[in-house]
Amino acid sequence: MMSRDNFILEAEGIYKSYRMGTAEVRVLKGVDLAVREGEFVAIVGASGSGKSTLLHILGALDKPDKGVVKFDGRDLNRLSSSELNRFRNKKVGFVFQFYHLLDELNVLENICLPVMAGKSVVGWLGARKWAKKRARELLSQLGLEQRAGHKPYQLSGGERQRVAINRALMNEPELLLADEPTGNLDSATGNGILEVFEKLNRAGQTIVMVTHDERIAHRARRIVTLTDGKITG
Amino acid sequence: MYKVILAIRYLLKRKISYFSVAATALCVFVVLVVITVLSGLTSQFKDKTHLSSGDCIVSSRSLVGFPYYDEFIDILKKEQIVAAASPVIKSYAIVHGITESGLRRVFQNDYPKEIMGIEPAAHSQVTEFGRWLCYNKANAQNVFKQSPDSLDPNLAGCVSGIGLIFERDSQGNYEIAPELPRLKVEVSSFALTAKGALARAGAGEVNTKTFYLSDTAQSGVSGDWSRFYLPFDQAQMLCGMATGPKRINAIFVKFRPGIRLEAGCEKVKLLWERFVKSKSGASQAELLENVRVQSWKIYNRSVVAVAETQQALMIIVFGMIGIITVFVVFVVFYMIVGHKTKDIGVLKSVGVSNGGVLMLFLGFGFLVGVLGSGAGAIAGWQFLVHINRIEDWLFVRFGFQLWDRTIYAIGDIPNAIDLKVLAGIILSAIAACLAGVWIPSRQAARLRPVETLQVSQL
């Protein structure tokens, strides 16, 4: 069920702290954020402001100490671990700064990973044909069709990130979460990645992107500034 | 499916995992070879011991022996479970050989030898006596008969243990001459009365009888170096057991095929107890009280138990190698998991559960176990197939022998693999790998994705 304001994602009063030695570091201090379906939101902030932590909490990779995260109106805190696994598999796709492709798998296998993760061996055998076809379509859309059989180490940084985007999109998630997706790329390559995001967003993909770079953030339709663990703008 | 693909790829791409495969293979190889050889040796030894004494032995604790044995043998022969029974005289004697030229010779040494009085036909039915003979295999029942070709045609024959006549070569085979040496055999023993006193103590003489050497017997047990087989009646006279109610030292009993050893022995024991009761008050009946009914294993426990204990100890010692395998696999997987935390984070970010990660690494460990034990089993099998050839080569090239065949009664090194043992070793190796991988796998499964993904982003 979609909420009244058509928010796909809502975070209310998110608190998160870490223990570093004997000291407690308070990273998020009551963050409120709502994202509408089809939005492209950039969360911008200085290093250590809590952007990545917030993104992980929004994608259910981490749990807040306090506060509620709702996806399609469902409180993520109330989901069982198997429901959370299904949520991460079907509803969200992650793009990381360092791509995080699995070195042992080739490009096609990396892209198919979310389908493999969501199915049993028998299920995968049934879906394999479809999955490979979709993975090739995605590769084709990002100009990587010739790279399907390559290993990650044989690709450039930009190509790796595009493969990572394809992996994130494989299960057609409602929400794409990107953590400094251009942070490890040169400006021209980074620009290409942002163009991909813009294109996806124009096609209706909801995207939340974290960046410390104001110029990159401006490629999004809405910018949220995180300062010292709080939304300030 | 990712579990299968990643487990295989981790195995192939992570060279360190080859160490755990190699450790597992080495462990399986060593344990398989050691268990096969030791079990083979022990089985051979037990089989030979079994074949030299039948299934069940009714024996006296005393050299004096016990009477009425023929009546009890008749009772035994009427029983369905009994295939054959053989009366046996067992004692000790000083034995000398006398050559054609009249020279006296000792057999290995002049220590007392064991003498065993037997009826060759009956004894061949209970034991493998007939097959042990080197020259009269087809004519075992006549092995003690007088021979016109012997040094004295009036003498009865006797059979010596083969090691008392012939030497072993470096391969462990006896160098059996085409013809048996022409020898008289002088056997001197102390005859005992039913009371246990020396029968001829007053005369100050021992009982001496002379035989001709009619054959040698190769049983593969200690008797080959210390025993002479004599005609039953002659041995009985020699030991002073032929007077009054005739006595013997033991009855060797063989059960029919399919009779369980314990059940058969229990039945014979019951029959013996009834027999003893029926003889109550008879002359020398008190000697029957000294008689035990035992299975061949108990009867020979002094030698069988030692072999079994040694085998068990060796298996325990080499089984400990399995613990080393667990440790090696644990260390290797601990390192692999340490290097794969990023992958674990990525997998969890695409919805893989803790159980999925656990199964992935357990599958990896299972693969290591299957490949390692498979390689070890194949290597062990090939080594065992060629073990005797390898030993021969080592002996020819370097003079090395695992067991000095001139000393030990071992022919070929046993190399028949017991498939049940092989399956047990392989399953244990896989279980050891799973045990080694269990802790690192649990650790991997419990990793929170942010712990692995965030580190690189700080």
Keywords:
heterodimer; A: 233 residues; alpha/beta; Rossmann fold; six-stranded mixed β-sheet; four-stranded antiparallel β-sheet; B: 458 residues; alpha+beta; six-stranded mixed β-barrel; two-stranded antiparallel ribbon; 14 helices; 12 strands
Determine Rg of chain B (CA atoms, Å): 32 Å
Might you state the CATH topology name of chain A?
Answer: Rossmann fold
How far apart lie the N and C ends of chain B? 32 Å
In the CATH hierarchy, what is the architecture of chain A at level 2?
3-Layer(aba) Sandwich
| Count of spatially separate domains of chain B | 2
**Poorly predicted residue ranges of chain B:** none
Q: Could you explain the architecture of this structure?
A:
The complex is a heterodimer of chains A (233) and B (458). The mean pLDDT of chain A is 89. Chain A is globular, with a radius of gyration of 18 Å. By secondary structure, chain A is of the alpha/beta class. Chain A has helices at residues 51-58, 81-90, 107-117, 121-141, 157-169, 187-202, 214-217; strands at residues 7-20, 23-36, 40-44, 66-71, 74-75, 92-95, 175-179, 206-211, 222-227, 230-231. In chain A, strand 4 and strand 5 form a beta hairpin. The relative contact order of chain A is 0.20. In chain A, strands 6-7-8-3-9-10 form a six-stranded mixed beta sheet, with helices on both faces. Chain A has seven helices and ten strands. Chain B has 458 residues and is an alpha+beta fold. Chain B has two domains: 2-46 and 305-457, no CATH class; 54-299, no CATH class. Chain B contains 14 helices and twelve strands. Chain B has helices at residues 2-13, 16-51, 69-78, 120-126, 129-132, 232-238, 261-278, 296-299, 301-339, 341-349, 354-385, 387-398, 419-446, 449-453, and strands spanning 56-60, 66-67, 82-98, 104-106, 113-118, 157-161, 184-189, 207-217, 227-231, 247-248, 250-255, 291-295. In chain B, the strands form two sheets. In chain B, strands 3-5-9-6-8-7 form a six-stranded mixed barrel. In chain B, strand 3 (82-98) and strand 4 (104-106) form a beta hairpin. Chain B is elongated, with a radius of gyration of 32 Å. The mean pLDDT of chain B is 88.
